[in-house]
Automatic annotation (TrEMBL):
<dbReference type="InterPro" id="IPR000281">
    <property type="entry name" value="HTH_RpiR"/>
</dbReference>
<dbReference type="InterPro" id="IPR047640">
    <property type="entry name" value="RpiR-like"/>
</dbReference>
<protein>
    <submittedName>
        <fullName>Transcriptional regulator</fullName>
    </submittedName>
</protein>
<dbReference type="InterPro" id="IPR009057">
    <property type="entry name" value="Homeodomain-like_sf"/>
</dbReference>
<feature type="domain" description="HTH rpiR-type">
    <location>
        <begin position="1"/>
        <end position="77"/>
    </location>
</feature>
<dbReference type="InterPro" id="IPR001347">
    <property type="entry name" value="SIS_dom"/>
</dbReference>
<dbReference type="InterPro" id="IPR036388">
    <property type="entry name" value="WH-like_DNA-bd_sf"/>
</dbReference>
<dbReference type="InterPro" id="IPR046348">
    <property type="entry name" value="SIS_dom_sf"/>
</dbReference>
<dbReference type="Pfam" id="PF01418">
    <property type="entry name" value="HTH_6"/>
</dbReference>
<feature type="domain" description="SIS">
    <location>
        <begin position="111"/>
        <end position="250"/>
    </location>
</feature>
Length: 250
């Protein structure tokens, strides 16, 4: 049973307010990918508690699980009007960019402020994640902020010799794998910098426990779709971050 079939199966179970949510969801299913629970409540003329009850009636723990199921349905089962490959790619990338709106502003501001501190800054990413790490490193150089960059496991392990607890460490990792952390930064396990950030696309990243802060970017639902390069959202995030820092400098 797919996402939409589950919604239709529970038609008889909805309360009056849940029925309003049901009508909105079934008529505007594509909006579930980017809209928050507050936005859906507003557009369905209900409340966030009504939307939450609707999600729970369907068997989800909360809105977050409901939304993930909706995204999975949209990208694996839902048939859009256009079959044009350019339209499909544009829709997918647009959806990724729109989801960045849901990131916690406080987390991003905290990261930008950490970058602006006078202490040393270290940026690390391996394999494909070295691309956004290097892009951030070079972008910061362009606005006069120095940083150390490591783009492979060997150079990452050498970073541990110069990192202190007062510094800022930023690691990019799509999967947030604990194995890559252990093969490069394990020497810091007991004295990680207070300003340590993991930037990942995996909300269940196993290495997150070693970092003081974790920022989860959207895009994991596309990880098995070759039509979309999930690294693009990380690059876009870096571009946004650089502009935010530049604005604070000004």
């Amino acid at each position: 049973m797919n996402f939409l079939e589950n919604i239709e199966l529970h038609e008889a179970d909805y309360s009056k307010t849940e029925w309003k949510v049901y009508q909105y969801v079934t008529k505007n299913i594509e909006t579930l990918e980017t809209f928050t629970i507050t936005k859906i409540a507003e557009l369905s003329h209900t409340s966030t508690s009504a939307v939450l009850r609707f999600c729970q009636t369907l068997g989800y723990k909360g809105f977050k699980d409901f939304r993930y199921a909706a995204i999975d349905y949209l990208h694996h089962y839902y048939k859009r009007d256009s079959a044009d490959i350019l339209d499909q790619m544009t829709d997918n990338y647009t959806s990724l960019i729109n989801q960045i709106r849901n990131l916690n502003r406080d987390d991003i501001n905290r990261l930008s402020q950490a970058i602006l501190t006078p202490e040393k800054l270290h940026i690390f990413g391996i394999y494909l994640s070295s691309l956004p790490a290097k892009y951030l490193h070079m972008g910061l150089q362009n606005i006069g902020i120095a940083s150390h960059f490591a783009g492979d496991l060997n150079s990452g392990s050498h970073l541990t010799n110069i990192i202190s607890e007062e510094d800022t460490l930023i690691m990019f990792s799509v999967a947030g794998s604990i194995s890559n952390y252990k093969r490069s930064l394990s020497a810091l396990q007991n004295n990680m910098p207070k300003n340590s950030y993991l930037i990942t696309l995996n909300e269940k990243a196993t290495s997150a426990k070693y970092f003081g802060h974790t920022i989860v970017l959207p895009g994991s639902v596309f990880s098995q779709q070759s039509i979309v390069d999930i690294q693009s959202v990380t690059i876009i995030f870096v571009e946004i971050l650089l502009n935010l820092i530049h604005e604070k400098l000004g």
